[in-house]
Design a protein that fits this description.
heterodimer, A: mainly alpha, MetI-like fold, 2 domains, 10 helices, about 80% helix, B: mainly alpha, globular
Chain lengths: ~270, ~260
């Protein structure tokens, strides 16, 4: 008995050999990447030494914020930015839904269609809002229209991808039941898939709106409307007090938007 | 039994508050649309412009690939350094911001710092840093680092607040100093999630690093903006294709890293 129960000398290890090698490779790559970047990135040392002085100068010029400019110029531009964000989000959602359905493998059973839709989603997600804005300013001229379309097109990829992932995570039970009852395709979508993805849908629409509020603010830098144009003008004219006021206004709007999104999400989900 | 089930007819009750909310939203939407100043004529001329524009984009012109790879490399360097700096700074900030480890008078300042960092778009922060430290990659690195602190700080804080406190208490009971509590009680519980968030941040920094160049903060964005302004649209197309390839490659790489760490 006692001879059989003799303990075998074994050491407990948290990770298998393969896992440890994989982790080591990741760490090594990271360190190598950092070292290579530090060595080859072009940073001028004088600029770093000079930085604290420059920052202090900048802050001194920014104080006090030019509160008088808010009702004159900033308020309307800020509202424009919000319109751009909201309309852009709605248009983006409308364009993203078809691609979301096409990209979900369980809804659309043809792989080539899945891949086409995925390609659209990847491309629109990878081209930044500002780049889209440059495009649309070239096409439609400067103004809010270009900004709205830029927001809408960049949102397609984000909303479409997350929406198709939500669709792929639905339970197949209700869908099979509807199919077995002979329901047409539209009914399968509206009574089988839709109720299952509604919470995910609203939560990602709200999330995207929150992001779009932030993005709509920078669009003006390339001439696509909104408060970014006021910021750009103030900076080109070296009106630092006004710049500070714009930044304060942006901070207030962004924080309010985040609070609103958190509140609505709690209410409806 | 079956007939019982059939008699139950689901009735959709009218939900008036929701209907009114929809109506209000529709009114607002119509009002906002008028702000866009879209006229049919403008739209049609726009479409014509668009057609011309698209025909100028293709075929992409890769002749100046040296300029292209130089810009891409700088963007990549900005993204890597900003992510590493961002992680290093947000680790202590998020520990300070976690309500289950720190008293309220410590968490609030840390949270305010994170909110301010998160509220401004990286490009706006980049403008300010360009004014402060001059044109070039440094401004881009600093801008993306600030944005990363805002974003990672929030995610890290939430992850820390969800840990089980039993292990923290056990380590405290042995009389371990604060740093050991963090290193052996907190970090092991959140490490894989942190890796997931950090690789997500690397991904998003890679996207934004191709952008900050538009305001002069280094990377491919400057090349892109210059090409746009010179109406060099076939080079623009080449740059955008290169950016997409880099971002997709980055996404595949971070997915592989997440798999290794089961994040």
């Amino acid at each position: 008995m006692s001879a059989a129960a003799e303990p075998v000398a074994r050491e407990w290890q948290r990770y298998s050999c393969g896992e440890r090698i994989a982790r080591f490779v990741v760490y090594l790559t990271l360190v190598a990447a950092v070292v290579l970047s530090v060595r080859s990135v072009e940073v001028i040392p004088e600029f770093i030494l000079d930085a604290p002085e420059q920052v202090a100068d900048l802050l001194k010029r920014m104080w006090p914020p030019d509160a008088a400019s808010y009702p004159q110029e900033i308020h309307q531009a800020l509202l424009d930015s919000m319109h751009i964000a909201t309309v852009g989000t709605v248009l983006g959602v409308l364009m993203a839904l078809p691609f979301g359905f096409l990209a979900a493998r369980n809804v659309t059973p043809w792989p080539w269609l899945n891949w086409m839709a995925r390609l659209v989603l990847i491309a629109t997600r990878s081209v930044n809002t500002l780049v889209f804005a440059l495009f649309f300013v070239a096409v439609f001229g400067p103004g809010a229209l270009a900004g709205t379309l830029a927001i809408a097109f960049h949102s397609i990829g984000f909303i479409g991808r997350l929406f198709s992932e939500a669709l792929e995570n639905t339970s197949p039970g209700p869908i099979e039941a509807l199919r077995a009852a002979g329901a047409p395709g539209v009914s399968v979508i509206s009574f089988g898939y839709w109720p299952q993805v509604v919470p995910a849908f609203w939560s990602l629409v709200l999330f995207r709106w929150d992001i779009n509020v932030r993005e709509s603010i920078v669009l003006g830098l390339v001439g696509a409307g909104g408060v970014g144009m006021v910021l750009d003008n103030a900076m080109n004219l070296f009106l630092w007090g006004r710049v500070a006021m714009v930044l304060i206004a942006i901070l207030a709007v962004v924080v309010l938007a985040e609070v609103a999104v958190t509140y609505i999400r709690k209410k409806i989900l | 039994m079956a007939s019982d089930a059939l008699t139950v007819v689901p009735v959709r009750r009218a939900n008036w508050p929701v209907r009114i909310a929809w109506l209000l939203f529709a009114v607002y939407f119509a009002y906002a649309l008028t702000h866009l100043q879209v006229t049919p004529a403008r739209f049609i001329t726009g479409l014509e412009h668009g057609q011309k524009f698209l025909s100028k984009l293709f075929p992409p012109d890769f002749h100046r690939w040296e300029l292209l790879t130089k810009g891409l490399r700088e963007s990549l360097e900005i993204a890597i350094l900003a992510s590493v700096l961002g992680v290093l700074i947000s680790l202590p900030v998020s520990v300070l911001g976690a309500r289950n480890l720190m008293p309220a008078w410590v968490t609030w300042p840390a949270r305010v710092v994170m909110i301010i960092c998160r509220s401004f778009h990286p490009v706006i922060i980049a403008i300010l840093f360009v004014k402060a430290v001059g044109f070039g990659a440094l401004a881009g690195i600093l801008a993306l680092t600030v944005a990363a602190v805002g974003f990672l700080g929030k995610l890290f804080t939430e992850a820390i607040e969800e840990i089980s406190l039993k292990q923290v208490e056990a380590i405290r009971a042995t009389g371990a100093p604060f740093m050991s509590v963090i290193a052996f009680g907190v970090l092991p519980q959140v490490f894989s999630r942190f890796v997931g968030f950090a690789s997500y941040e690397l991904d998003s920094n890679l996207r934004n690093s191709t952008l900050v160049g538009i305001v002069g903060a280094g990377g491919i964005g400057g090349t892109l903006f210059a090409a746009f302004q010179r109406f060099d649209y076939d080079f623009v197309c080449a740059i955008i294709i290169a950016i997409i390839v880099m971002i997709v490659a980055g996404e595949l790489l971070t997915n592989a890293v997440k798999k290794v760490f089961r994040a």
